[in-house]
UniProtKB/TrEMBL annotation:
Residues 440-761 form the Cobalamin-independent methionine synthase MetE C-terminal/archaeal domain. Belongs to the vitamin-B12 independent methionine synthase family. Pathway: Amino-acid biosynthesis; L-methionine biosynthesis via de novo pathway; L-methionine from L-homocysteine (MetE route): step 1/1. GO terms for molecular function: 5-methyltetrahydropteroyltriglutamate-homocysteine S-methyltransferase activity; zinc ion binding. This is 5-methyltetrahydropteroyltriglutamate--homocysteine methyltransferase. It comes from Paraburkholderia monticola.
Length: 768
């Protein structure tokens, strides 16, 4: 018999109940007890949803983040919150977001606000975790209260509980040694201190009568230094004979050179992500010791497509023969990364809906697979036939396949991605046309999304405002931002993006090949969720998407108006993407569609076009060895999009909140005339990468931290730009904020940009 289990369940709730509960609590609108009760209620519901599994995860719930929960279980709290008294949950929120609930803070010992923990992406997902902090003094201290509560609840509900914890090596790997005196030189030096706490935790599970513990070590799918590989051996040898069984869980990629290591650790089972590492399943079956369980992640926990159950059974059946009871079955990774329930998507096109599976539907698929393996396919004939029909319908649907798009893709040749001439020659022509001063000023695209804008949008959606009423409202906003920019004296203007709710969704809605869910929310961090659009078919652009708005904005001013677009790589990386062709192919399709938009803008007389690639870096594969391949098609896609224009048309791109050092050559390869980047927080140090590389084109390093309500002074901006000029020749520098201004108020933006323009004037007057 195969055993079914799940690595984790989305905790936000099908209707984002946790989000709203958290926000009520933080605002002081509900009590801590109400929030805790909501947590218990969601856990109970989610275990009920998983009741057909042989083992259900316990401890995968978190009020903010599972890594932060682990830090609390290990007693690793940053020093800055250690003085606080009161409820542990409040301290937890202090680390998560710098403060707890309104009411809770008033009674806290201190001022109420502390620095929030740093947040970063969980491997290659769009989920962000709170980075564990380490110093040379870090000590650990087991706190089992969280597990105790959840185990009790699960038991009371009759759940066959499998606690889920983050393994010690991944925990250390995810953390960061804090700067300052007593900085820890090597995180692995903490392992001897960490091990007794993990051992005590496992002992605790034994006392609680737990049979299996899932211990997550996703770092095993990355390239590990010898020291980290050795640490695995030390750590897991230290867990021998604890009296509970350990399922070592890996996911998000292939184990490759770590497969041997993973199979040799003294644990009782190994989970492999068979979506990403199908070919390693058979290898692991061979290499694992005879007592060991092999858990196969056969259903994609990261995507929203139905599994091809028949094809999956074709390769699972022989494996089940070979392994017997030692075969376990699960989704490839925690279902945290998919929405909860497709059944709520009443408005989604029925045909497209029939191709999809959200978390609950994935659990149903798991059950069908297990039944077929345990009792034969004829026990699930109906389910398998329905699945086969859906898979075939999707494969053959004319809505997925557009021969014209495929033909256009086949016609791509490298020349399409080349500008007419090299940057230097283009720069001369652009300068003659645009007549910009030294240190030209611009902004990144969006201006404040005011209450009026949101009101007009919701009125339009509900039907209270018609198309032309909505258009008028947006034009008014565009006019306002153009007037403000002229008054400020900015050099290259933007229309302000009033008509866009989201930089990806806006384009997705206008492209063929995209669908949108209503409740397809996925947790991004804390109470924040995103609803990625669904790229299901060949992508084409039925008509121009932005030309009218930009032309209108340009008609209001003599200054150059930037055409604003989102680039193909960013659209791809922030969508659920079809799994029936390589991501690169979908990206090239997006590139051709956006390219048409670029050319239409140029035809309409737009002289500067900005193509944002905010998510280019985050698409990098987990393994460095695969970076080259990704960067090749990502850069090629950008070049296809951008570089069909005449020399005179100036192409900008924008990237933010990334480490650029590793990919600077690829950024240069994109050959944008100007790149604007976020740098103000790093004191221009980010520019070192561009300096060292001798970045050849123009750069606008951000001088205004748009995430802060603080207004940068003129003097501060001048100083930052002087630092920039030490690294990049002044004639290739632009002056601009870090990123778009849509989350700010006009009352903040106006003084900040006034100072920015004044700073540019100072710099010009001092330039020789
Ligand atoms: N043009 C977008 C804006 O200004 C860019 C946003 C981003 O980089 N994330 O909002
Ligand atoms: Zn940005």
């Amino acid at each position: 018999m195969v055993t079914t289990h799940n690595l984790g369940f989305p905790r936000i709730g099908a209707q984002r109940e946790l989000k709203f509960g958290l926000e009520r609590y933080w605002k002081g609108e509900s009590s801590r007890d109400e929030l805790k009760a909501l947590g218990a209620q969601l856990r109970a519901r989610h275990w009920n949803d998983q009741r057909e599994l042989d083992l259900a995860p316990v401890g995968d719930f978190a009020f903010y983040d599972q890594v932060l929960d682990m830090s609390f279980a290990l007693g690793n709290l940053p020093a800055r919150v250690q003085g606080f008294h009161g409820d542990k949950l409040d301290n937890y929120f202090r680390v998560a977001r710098g403060r707890s609930a309104q009411g809770a803070e008033e009674h806290a010992a201190c001022c109420g606000g502390v620095a929030a923990g740093e947040m970063t992406k969980w491997f290659d997902t769009n989920y962000h975790y709170i980075v564990p902090e380490f110093t040379a003094e870090t000590a650990f201290n087991l706190d089992t209260s969280g597990f105790l509560e959840q185990l009790r609840e699960a038991r009371a509900q009759g759940v066959k509980a499998k606690p889920v914890i983050i393994g010690p090596i991944t925990y250390l790997w995810l953390g960061k040694a804090k700067d300052g005196p007593g900085k820890l030189a090597d995180k692995l030096a903490l392992l001897p201190r960490l091990m007794p706490v993990y051992r005590a935790l496992l002992d605790y599970f034994k006392v609680m009568d737990v049979e299996w513990v899932q211990i997550d070590e996703p770092v095993l799918v990355t390239e590990l230094d010898p020291a980290w590989r050795a640490a695995f051996v030390t750590a897991y040898q230290g867990f021998e004979e604890r009296g509970v069984k350990l399922l070592l869980a890996t996911y998000f990629g292939q184990l490759k050179e770590n497969l041997e290591l993973a199979c040799s650790l003294p644990v009782d089972g190994l989970h492999i992500d068979a979506i990403n590492a199908r070919e390693e399943v058979a290898l692991a079956a061979q290499k694992l010791p005879a007592h060991s369980v092999l858990s196969v992640g056969a259903i994609n926990g990261r995507n929203i497509w139905k599994t091809d159950l028949n094809a999956t059974l074709d390769w699972l059946e022989p494996l089940a023969q070979q392994l017997g009871d030692r075969l376990w079955l699960a989704p490839s990774c925690s279902l945290l990364h998919v929405p909860v329930d497709l059944a709520s998507e009443a408005r989604l096109d029925a045909e497209i809906r029939s191709w999809l599976a959200f978390a609950l539907q994935k659990l149903d698929e798991l059950k069908v697979l297990a039944t077929a393996l345990n009792a034969g396919r004829d026990r699930v004939t109906h389910e398998l036939a329905a699945n086969a029909a859906a898979i075939a319908a999707r494969r053959n649907s004319p809505r997925v396949n557009n021969p014209a798009v495929k033909a256009a893709l086949a016609r791509i040749d490298a020349n399409l991605g080349n500008r007419q001439h090299a940057y230097a020659e283009r720069a001369t022509k652009q300068a003659a046309l645009l007549k910009l001063p030294a240190y030209p000023t611009t902004t990144i695209g969006s201006f404040p999304q005011t209450a009026e804008i949101r009101h007009a949008r919701s009125q339009f959606r509900s039907g209270a405002l018609d198309q032309s009423g909505y258009q008028d409202a947006m034009r008014k906003e565009i006019e306002r931002s153009v007037r403000e920019q002229e008054a400020l004296g900015l050099d290259v203007l933007v229309h302000g993006e009033a008509e866009r709710n989201d930089m990806v969704e806006y384009f997705g809605e206008q492209l063929d090949g995209y669908a949108f869910s209503q409740f397809g929310w996925v947790q991004s961090y804390g109470s924040r969720c995103v609803k990625p659009p669904i790229l299901f078919g060949d992508i084409s652009r039925p008509k121009a998407m932005t030309v009218e708005w930009i032309s209108y904005a340009q008609s209001l001013t003599n200054k150059p108006m930037k055409g604003m677009l989102t680039g193909p790589v960013t659209i791809l990386n922030w969508s659920f993407v079809r799994d029936d062709q390589p991501r690169s192919v979908s990206c090239y399709q997006l590139a051709l569609a956006i390219r048409e938009e670029v050319l239409d803008l140029e035809k309409a007389g737009v002289r500067v076009v900005q193509i944002d690639e905010a998510a280019l870096r985050e698409g990098l594969p987990l393994r460095r060895a695969q970076w080259g391949e990704y960067l090749r098609w990502a850069v090629e896609s950008f070049r296809l999009t951008a570089n069909g224009v005449r020399d005179e048309t100036q192409i900008h791109t924008h990237m933010c909140y990334s480490e650029f050092n590793d990919i600077i050559a690829s950024i240069a390869d994109m050959d944008a005339d100007v790149i604007t980047i976020e740098t103000s927080r790093s004191d221009m140090e980010l520019l070192d990468a561009f300096d060292d590389f001798n970045y050849p084109n123009e750069i606008g390093p951000g001088v205004y931290d748009i995430h802060s309500p603080n207004i940068p002074t003129q003097q501060h901006i001048v100083q930052l730009m002087r630092k920039a000029a030490e690294r990049i020749p002044a004639q290739r520098l632009w002056v601009n904020p870090d990123c778009g201004l849509k989350t700010r108020q006009w009352s903040e933006v106006l003084p900040a940009l006034t100072n920015m323009v004044a700073a540019a004037k100072t710099l010009r007057s001092q330039a020789r």
